[in-house]
Amino acid sequence: MGYKQRVVFLHREIMEIKLGRKLKEDEVVHHIDNNKQNNDVGNLIVMNKREHLSLHNAGVPKPKPIGWKPKNTLSVKKVNMIKKLLLDGLNNSEIARKIKVSDYTVGRYKKKFEEFKK
Predict the structure, then answer these.
(1) How far apart are CA 35 and CA 91, in angstroms?
(2) Is the entire prediction scored with pTM above 0.70?
(3) Neighbouring residues of 83: CB distance < 8 A, sequence distance ≥ 6
(4) How far apart are CA 76 and CA 17, in angstroms?
(5) Sequence-ordered list of residues with C-beta below 8 angstroms from that of 33, at least 6 positions apart, any chain
(6) How far is 32 from 49, CA to CA, in rounded Å?
(7) 100-115: buried (b, 16+ CB within 10 Å) or exposed (e) per residue?
(8) d(Cα 2, Cα 82) in Å, to the nearest integer?
(9) What is the chain written as a DSSP string?
(10) Geometric angle at alpha carbon 93, from 91 and 98, rounded to 5°
(11) For every one of its 118 residues, what pLDDT tens digit does the chain have, with 9 covering 90 and above?
């Protein structure tokens, strides 16, 4: 008859000792610096599986549906028009009324143009 071996991960053992209890079924031990070899107690944190998954997926962009276009983008024609009207000396409100966008949008693009000059 064979023996059933139980695999115990060192980082889980360390956290159980620190907590003074067994980890719950839905608890995960996360390596803060993402180095799985660094099992220092200060590098370990307990979280539930959902929190852990969302932490690791935080920097991963979600796929966009086919044909998706951000709502806050302007056509090249409108961007060039903003640039021209700014050079002509019009203020944000005048430009916004002229090309039917918000003052805020004109200000955003104005800021981008100014950053380009630097």
Answers:
(1) 52
(2) no
(3) 109, 113
(4) 60
(5) 43
(6) 15
(7) ebeeebbebbbeeeee
(8) 77
(9) -PPPP----HHHHHHHHHHTSPPPTTEEEEETTS-TT---GGGEEEEEHHHHHHHHTTTSPPPPPTT---TT---HHHHHHHHHHHHTT--HHHHHHHHT--HHHHHHHHHHHHHHH-
(10) 100
(11) 566 666 678 999 999 999 999 999 999 999 998 888 999 999 999 999 999 888 888 776 767 777 776 666 778 888 889 989 999 999 999 999 999 888 888 988 888 877 766 5
The two three-digit tokens of residue 51, written as one number: 């929190």
Among 108, 36, 48, 45, which Cα is nearest to 74's? Answer: 108
Tokens at 91, concatenated: 């203020």
CB atoms under 10 Å from CB of 13, counted, come to: 13
